[in-house]
Amino acid sequence: MKIIRVKDSVEGGRVAFELLKEKLAAGAQTLGLATGSTPIEFYKQIVASDLDLSGLRSINLDEYVGLSADNDQSYHHFMHQNLFHAKPFKESFLPNGLAEDLDAETKRYDALLEQYPVGLQILGIGNNGHIGFNEPGTPFEAKTQVVDLAEDTIKANARFFDDESEVPRQAISMGISSILAAKSIILMAYGAAKADAIAGMVNGQPTTDLPASSLQNHPEVYVIVDDAAASKLD
Ligand code: GLP
C-alpha cells in the first residue's frame, strides 16, 4: 500500500484526481465509484476540470435496498448530484435497490463486473473498516450480495437522514473479491473516526473482522489520509 498524507479532503481530492488522470492515460476504461462524504472533493475536482468521461463506464459499489433512484438519500441520487449531472459517462451502473428479485440483481451486477473490468476503484472506509457495504465478518471471497447493515453503520449514516429509523437496514454491495479485482485502487479517509480502521487496515494482520485489511492482498492501493485518519499508524 502506498500511503499519501494530505492536509485535508481538498488536497486529497486533488491528489486522487491526478492519479485518476494517470490511470486514464494508462488505459483505464471503467471506473469503480463510491459514495459517502469522503469522495465529494474528488468529484468536485472532476466537475471543475475539462476531463471528458463520456467514453468511459462507471460501476458503483453499492445501493440501499428499498430506496428508489429518485429518493434523495439513494446513491443513485448522490452520484447524479455530485458527478453525473456535470460529467456523464457512456454508461453508469448502480445496483437497483428496488429490484423485485434481489438475488437476480446481485447476479446481474457480477455479470456486469465481469464484462467491464474496473481499471480504477475509488473507496472510502467505514468507521468499522467496511468497504462498499461489506461489513465485518464478510468473507474476502464474497461477490455482490445483499447485506444487513451493522448497527454502527446505521448510526454513522443516520446523519444523512431525518431520523435514524429511516436508514435502510439492507444494501446491495459489490463483494470484497470484486473490489480486489480492480487494477488500481484509491482509498481515501479523513478524520479521527477513521483512525482505528486505517491503522488496522495498514498495520494489522488481514482479518475478516476488518474488511479493508483485505486490501493488503492487492498489488496497487493508494491510501490518501489526513493527519487525523493517519494518527494511529505505526
Ligand atoms: C457508506 C458507504 C461507503 C463509505 C462509507 C463512509 O457506508 N457504503 O462506501 O465509504 O459510508 O462514508 P463517509 O465517506 O461519509 O465517511
- State the helical fraction: 25-40%
Task: Summarize model confidence as the mean pLDDT.
Answer: 97
- Give start-end ranges of low-pLDDT stretches: none
Oligomer: single chain
What is the radius of gyration computed over CA atoms, rounded to a whole number of angstroms?
A: 16 Å
Tally of separate domains: 1
The percent range for strand residues is 15-25%
Instruction: Give, in spatial order, the strands making up the sheet with the most strands.
Output: 1-10-9-6-2-3-5
For the terminal residues, how far apart are their CA atoms? 14 Å
Distinct helical segment count: 7
| Strands, count | 10
Bound molecules: 2-amino-2-deoxy-6-O-phosphono-alpha-D-glucopyranose
CATH class wording: Alpha Beta
Envelope shape: globular
What structural class do you assign from the helix and strand content? alpha/beta
Describe this structure in words.
It is a single chain. The protein has 7 helices and 10 strands. The protein has helices at residues 9-25, 40-48, 75-84, 102-115, 151-157, 176-180, 195-203; strands at 2-5, 30-33, 57-60, 62-64, 91-93, 120-123, 145-148, 170-173, 184-189, 221-225. The chain is globular, with a radius of gyration of 16 Å. Strand 9, helix 7 and strand 10 form a beta-alpha-beta unit. The chain has one domain (2-223): Rossmann fold, CATH 3.40.50.1360. Strands 1-10-9-6-2-3-5 form a 7-stranded parallel beta sheet, covered by helices on one side. The protein has a 3-stranded antiparallel beta sheet with strand order 4-8-7, covered by helices on one side. The chain has 234 residues and is α/β, with parallel strands linked by helices. The structure holds 2-amino-2-deoxy-6-O-phosphono-alpha-D-glucopyranose. Residues 34-38, 61-62, 124-126, 132-133, 153, 157 line the site of 2-amino-2-deoxy-6-O-phosphono-alpha-D-glucopyranose.
